[in-house]
Amino acid sequence: xxxxxxxxxxxxxxxxxxxxxxxxxxxxxxxxxxxxxxxxxxxxxxxxxxxxxxxxxxxxxxxxxxxxxxxxxxxxxxxxxxxxxxxxxxxxxxxxxxxxxxxxxxxxxxxxxxxxxxxxxxxxxxxxxxxxxxxxxxxxxxxxxxxxxxxxxxxxxxxxxxxxxxxxxxxxxxxxxxxxxxxxxxxxxxxxxxxxxxxxxxxxxxxxxxxxxxxxxxxxxxxxxxxxxxxxxxxxxxxxxxxxxxxxxxxxxx
Length: 254
Ligand code: PGA
What we know:
Layout: E1 7-12, H1 19-33, E2 39-44, H2 47-57, E3 62-66, H3 83-87, E4 91-96, H4 99-104, H5 109-121, E5 125-130, H6 134-138, H7 142-153, H8 159-163, E6 166-169, H9 183-200, H10 203-208, E7 210-214, H11 219-226, E8 233-236, H12 243-253
Parallel strand pairs: 1-2, 1-8, 2-3, 3-4, 4-5, 5-6, 6-7, 7-8
């Protein structure tokens, strides 16, 4: 597939996989995907598996990501993980502001922006998630909600930092539900997000930034979604937990 930007496909394992299960999955992915050069591939295991997984991916084309981190550099924050602690395990990416964290941990756009700046301070690339709920889409509020999230979650980033930031558009109603946005919905929403980036930063940044689609991405819908001009990859949940489905999503996207 001839794309303007290199595709980036990331697996968000969420709160799944013991260390042993994680290593099994990584071994399988390494076997299946060793020859892939056309796509940036990222795996995001839970914190507890980062150390062991990092050793296995070192000599591979898989990059490591985390699912969250603190906005603080260290200190008295019980239960939190600092950005530098992720760097110890060769983590390159960090998912920020996933809708599950916005919902269950009440993360706000302002907090997510602080985390994005903290990530860049240690050269971690944030994957900043945005997306509307079903009620918001049905109420005709999608653009308004996305504009608020994009402006708030990316506030304060420089153009250089934005160039090294990935956006994940994940309609909340499509996450884990089996419902996917139609390719037209995905393309037009991605184009809208790119227009917001153009206004907030500039043309060059907007042309460069990669926007992933997330929400029930599977081997059967990956090709059509990835063929859209403004869809630059995927953030995959459920289908990232099995070698076969994640490998097929990658292969069907090339
Ligand atoms: P899903 O999750 O692929 O299981 O819908 C996507 C996500 O939450 O990142």
